[in-house]
TrEMBL record:
UniProt keyword annotations, A-Z: Iron, Metal-binding
General function of this protein: 2-oxoglutarate(2OG)-dependent dioxygenase that catalyzes the conversion of 2-oxoglutarate to succinate and CO(2) in an iron-dependent manner. However, does not couple 2OG turnover to the hydroxylation of acyl-coenzyme A derivatives, implying that it is not directly involved in phytanoyl coenzyme-A metabolism. Does not show detectable activity towards fatty acid CoA thioesters.
Cofactor field: Fe cation
Pfam families to which the protein is assigned, alphabetical: PhyH
Keyword Iron (UniProt): yes
Protein name according to UniProt: Phytanoyl-CoA dioxygenase domain-containing protein 1
Gene Ontology terms for molecular function: metal ion binding
Length: 296
């Protein structure tokens, strides 16, 4: 558990840098339970070929794939599968074994799967939320990210971005990511990189729902700045470690050029007190799944 003195130091670093590394936050057994659970979910995966979507963080490819697909847009209250680039043929058939084709699973594991629900609402996560001063946090989405190698090509990098581009609130500063390493995350297999302090500069780009009749379901408003690569620092973390990510901090991950995977479970929370969730966000709460409170 996080001690009081440690918490004060953590808060200082988090507010200065926009991210915080907490090594060994989860046990190896908890990490293994999540990996075992996801293996069962993938083994039972059934996605019609016309719904199979390649996941990308590049703007043009996002609009072409996720942005043109109701399968993505309506995934906020479901468990759905998104695939790596180059693993599907033109008819949506798998070119490699399906268990090695998945890029991520989202966006409601925290609500529909008992293992991931327990992790998300675990006493130590709730305690950390209270130490961070969160009064009424709610869980808005969750994802399991694979980053498995080898593939037909090294797995794509995640381009520099801010989570608030996709998960926008009024006021800003109310969204936070919990990023859990289920294996060691290294520079070789694609750990996160951050620009410390970049969460203080606001955002310049948003992904919003497109108007009715548009050619895509979502569109980008504004543009992402060109970032200086020398400003990024790598943040490797051991299995079981947790990285807290401020919604406006700029971060990325590089190619997985190793022979090792980099499995991660991540979820985002929002401080709901005195906060408005943008009705333009691609992700919306539904009658079937309102954003559940973090504290149980």
């Amino acid at each position: 558990m996080v001690q009081q003195s440690e918490c004060l130091s953590c808060l200082i670093h988090f507010h200065q840098d926009g991210f915080l590394v907490l090594e060994h936050f989860f046990t190896p057994e908890e990490c293994d339970s999540m990996r075992e659970q996801i293996q069962g979910i993938v083994a039972e995966m059934e996605v019609p070929p016309h719904c199979r979507t390649e996941f990308s963080t590049k703007e043009g490819e996002q609009l072409q794939a996720q942005g043109s697909s109701d399968y993505f847009l309506t995934s906020g209250d479901k468990i759905r599968f998104f695939f790596e680039k180059g693993v599907l043929d033109e008819r949506g058939n798998f070119l490699i074994p399906k268990e090695r084709s998945v890029s991520k699973i989202g966006h409601a594991l925290h609500a529909h799967d008992p293992v991931f629900k327990q992790i998300t609402h675990s006493p130590k996560v709730q305690e950390l939320g209270r130490k961070l001063g969160l009064e009424s946090p709610v869980v808005v989405q969750s994802m399991y990210i694979f980053k498995v190698c080898p593939q037909p090509a090294p797995l794509a990098a995640v381009t520099p971005h801010q989570d608030a581009t996709f998960l926008h609130t009024e006021p800003l500063g109310r969204v936070m990511g919990f990023w859990i390493a289920l294996e060691d995350a290294t520079q070789e297999n694609g750990c996160l990189w951050f620009i410390p302090g970049s969460h203080t500069n606001g955002i310049t780009r948003r992904m919003v729902r497109a108007a009715s009749g548009a050619s895509t379901c979502v569109e980008f408003v504004g543009s992402e700045p060109t970032y200086d690569d020398s400003q990024f620092i790598p943040v490797p973390i051991s299995k079981g470690g947790l990285i807290l990510i401020h919604g406006e901090v700029v971060h990325k991950s590089e190619l997985n050029s190793s022979q090792f995977s980099r499995h991660v479970f991540t979820f985002h929370i929002m401080e709901a007190k005195d906060t408005s969730w943008s009705k333009d966000n691609w992700l919306q709460p539904t009658p079937e799944l309102p954003f559940p409170p973090l504290y149980t």
